[in-house]
């Protein structure tokens, strides 16, 4: 054993002979429902999120939920909330180890009427890249604390890691917009999927070429089926939408639907989840579907396991989407990595 006199220790460390500080541990597998730490060692804070792949890097955007969860004293339903902090962004090359890039759309603290004031609600942010304009465009659910506003908010940036400039909110196609996602098709057209008509009907709305507004072309889908939490992907020329039922922060059964054309007609296939608690979506709710770049027919299904009384500590449930002979399943795994797609 080498004995190093105490007074020599700082010198030896300075010379790089001993590690000065243990690096944050590298993540080597997905562990759905466990605390997932970023490269600084802090729990990842990106709820109701989505991923964007851009030039070799994945960016994960989500609700940065900080601080105490409360149920407002006027609440007539379980609208548990944290104050709006903003949208957080993380970057990664391997989907397992995420570096915090900061709050890319922060709350606006000094204007109580602003959509992004802490007293409001900001949910389900998704970012898409517009090749024509070179802009990164964020769509999010912008709400009042009592969820009566039901609007979509849009923000833009020149860089995937922000900062984003908030452009404002509106009701797309003059109807309510709550749970939402955006999807870019292979031809560059982008669509917003949003729960509307009091969450009863899913609208699919073609966006303008700059992705900043609805184009005016839309369809009503899953009419009176109360689908929420839409997550969309394309496989083998067909469109798929994973969604949840409508039970607030509490879990329910997921459903996947398929369409030949993105604006419909959509046909419900059933619940793709398998394994323990598959009928409760593993106590989680869908938020996004991310293709794995460089692997064929490989997707990650992203869910949130909401902790309604401590929303900041809500966990992530990321699972592989397995496609066999055209059948799609999302099987539970306690621990897994991308090698699953090579089998
Ligand atoms: C869920 C929705 C969440 C959040 C929550 C509030 O149905 O998917 O994003 O809005 O309700 O209770």
Automatic annotation (TrEMBL):
<keyword id="KW-0378">Hydrolase</keyword>
<dbReference type="InterPro" id="IPR023296">
    <property type="entry name" value="Glyco_hydro_beta-prop_sf"/>
</dbReference>
<keyword id="KW-0732">Signal</keyword>
<keyword id="KW-0326">Glycosidase</keyword>
<dbReference type="GO" id="GO:0005975">
    <property type="term" value="P:carbohydrate metabolic process"/>
</dbReference>
<dbReference type="Pfam" id="PF04616">
    <property type="entry name" value="Glyco_hydro_43"/>
</dbReference>
<protein>
    <submittedName>
        <fullName>Glycosyl hydrolases family 43</fullName>
    </submittedName>
</protein>
<dbReference type="InterPro" id="IPR006710">
    <property type="entry name" value="Glyco_hydro_43"/>
</dbReference>
<feature type="signal peptide">
    <location>
        <begin position="1"/>
        <end position="24"/>
    </location>
</feature>
<dbReference type="GO" id="GO:0004553">
    <property type="term" value="F:hydrolase activity, hydrolyzing O-glycosyl compounds"/>
</dbReference>
<comment type="similarity">
    <text>Belongs to the glycosyl hydrolase 43 family.</text>
</comment>
């Amino acid at each position: 054993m080498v004995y190093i006199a105490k007074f020599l220790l700082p010198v030896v460390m300075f010379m790089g002979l001993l590690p000065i500080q243990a690096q944050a541990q590298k993540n080597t597998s997905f562990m759905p429902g466990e605390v997932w730490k970023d490269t600084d060692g802090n729990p990842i804070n990106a709820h109701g999120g989505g991923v964007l792949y851009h030039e070799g890097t994945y960016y994960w955007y989500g609700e940065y939920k900080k601080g105490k969860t409360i149920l407002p004293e006027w609440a007539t339903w379980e609208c548990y909330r944290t104050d709006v902090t903003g949208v957080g962004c993380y970057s990664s090359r391997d989907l397992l180890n995420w570096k915090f890039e900061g709050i890319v759309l922060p709350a606006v603290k000094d204007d109580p009427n602003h959509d992004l004031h802490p007293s409001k609600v900001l949910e389900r942010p998704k970012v898409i890249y517009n090749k024509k304009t070179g802009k990164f465009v964020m769509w999010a659910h912008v709400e009042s604390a009592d969820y009566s506003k039901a609007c979509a908010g849009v923000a833009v940036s020149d860089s995937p890691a922000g900062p984003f400039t908030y452009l404002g909110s509106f009701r797309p196609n003059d109807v309510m917009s709550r749970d939402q996602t955006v999807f870019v098709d292979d031809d560059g057209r982008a669509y917003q999927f949003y729960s509307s008509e009091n969450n009863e009907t899913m609208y699919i709305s073609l966006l303008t070429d700059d992705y900043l507004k609805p184009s005016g072309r839309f369809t009503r889908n899953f009419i009176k089926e109360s689908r929420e939490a839409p997550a969309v992907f394309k496989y083998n020329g067909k469109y798929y939408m994973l969604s949840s039922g409508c039970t607030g922060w509490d879990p329910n059964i997921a459903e996947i639907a398929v369409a030949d054309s993105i604006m419909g007609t959509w046909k419900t296939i059933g619940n793709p989840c398998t394994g323990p608690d598959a009928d409760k979506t593993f106590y989680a709710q869908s938020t996004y579907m991310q293709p794995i770049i460089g692997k064929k027919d490989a997707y990650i299904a992203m869910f949130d396991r909401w902790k309604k009384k401590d929303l900041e500590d809500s966990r992530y449930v990321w699972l592989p989407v397995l496609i066999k002979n055209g059948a799609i399943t999302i099987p539970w795994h306690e621990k897994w990595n991308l090698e699953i797609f090579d089998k």
